[in-house]
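Backbone shape codes
____________________
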Amino acid sequence: MRLTLAALALSALTACGGSLGSIGSGPFGSLGSGARTPTAATTAPSRVRGGETVAVNRYLWNASLDVLSFLPIQTIDPFTGVIVTGYGTPPGGGTAYRATIYVSDPALDARALNVAIATRGGPVAAETQRAVEDAILSRARQLRIADGNL
């Protein structure tokens, strides 16, 4: 059951990896569809930290929303880089998950992404969390390539 979310994340990655022409939509919906993606997230959101402006990577932000779109959003703040979801069940799964995502840097880098995933029984296995992080990072790279910002 713990691997259900990992399998889902990997299937999302596989489904999105086919053609770059279909990057705007995936198995969990499309980017920018409705209220899930705030206007500020379509540009690089930024915040002030210690007197300097720190931008949040828009590809990581949008990829996080895309990969975990089956989870209902409770709190979303593109200026602090935090997305908090409620419990949701992945399509075809039986276990409910919730996630907290923190995008901390403008770089498209694994160090800029922190994901915490839990079930009602507690945190998920480390390999499940890593699989979801990998799916988000891969999706972010696909979005960047599709944008032409190499």
